[in-house]
Amino acid sequence: MEEEASIDPTLNTTKNVFSSALRFAMSIDTLKNSPDLSAHELKTSAQEQVEFMLSEDEQVRSLVSQEEEVKSVVRLGISNLVSLLLLLLPEELDVLVLNALYDIEWLCKVLPRMEMMKDLVFKWADVSEEILAVAQSCKLGVKVKLVEVTGKVLEAVGYGVVIVPSRSRACLLKLWLPFIRRLKTLADAEGSESECRMDEDLCEFLEGSMVSLVLTLPSNDQAEVFGEWMRGVALEGVKFPDLSEAFEVWCYRSKSAKRRLLEKCDRLATENLAH
């Protein structure tokens, strides 16, 4: 009884308010319903409320780290939004995919504050192949937004914000690198005034994330990525992304590893002769 009395009476209220705001912010209860302006405004207001509560309310941040119920709401929202991308019919694609991508992009802002970015990264890695299949039928502008969102995932993995197995890192890069390169060529062909262009900031962001990511891969996977990248440069003239810096690091490490191996072999041979 004494323990119950010591609990902050506002804690449960705060949890309910935050959970409700999360559900609206991630369209959990209105995912494919009410596509009107009022629903969109409600979602936007809920997203702003979630951001404010995370930045200003220490109690909320404590709730996220301790309450499995709150984490479950977040995971449900992630699952619903990513799954929505895979379930849309062709006539629904562009508008609803774009809406889902904007919601996922917003998640990329708040998930790190909740220490839950890993949930999105692992989900995205699991279904990247399916997402790319859906993306083939989307318009150029939607593809650019898809790449912006994917860049957040690549950044989280490349800079070590989220730790994933080396196999998953390699698959992520090998799947998305060719798509991003082709998209850059298509976007550039639209001209510098096009709304679908990939601007300089986005390109630098993507390039930095991919350079960091490739450097985290095992040497054999790096060699495969660099081989594909150099073929693109040589055969298609596609210079984006510039992985030359990462390639130089790989060459240096490979030469150093080879030198150390040869030195070890020489040392062992000398020791055997001495005996």
Summarize the topology:
Layout: H1 2-6, H2 11-25, H3 37-56, H4 58-66, H5 68-87, H6 93-110, H7 117-135, H8 140-158, H9 166-189, H10 200-214, H11 219-236, H12 244-274
Helix pairs in contact: 2-3, 2-5, 5-6, 5-7, 6-8, 7-8, 7-9, 8-9, 8-10
Task: Explain what the structure shows.
This protein has helices at 2-6, 11-25, 37-56, 58-66, 68-87, 93-110, 117-135, 140-158, 166-189, 200-214, 219-236, 244-274. It is mainly α and 275 residues long. Mean pLDDT is 82; it is low at 1-7.
Low-pLDDT residue spans: 1-7
Largest sheet: none
Global shape: globular
Structural class: mainly alpha
From N to C, what is the helix and strand string? HHHHHHHHHHHH
Radius of gyration: 23 Å
Distance from N terminus to C terminus (CA atoms, Å) equals 78 Å
Structure summary, number of beta strands: 0
Count up the helices: 12
Q: What does the average pLDDT come to?
A: 82
How much β-strand is present in the residues? under 5%
**Helicity range of the residues?**
over 70%
Structural descriptors:
about 280 residues; mainly alpha; 12 helices; disordered N terminus
In short:
The chain is mainly alpha-helical and 275 residues long. Helix content is 77%, strand content 0%. It starts with a helix and ends with a helix.
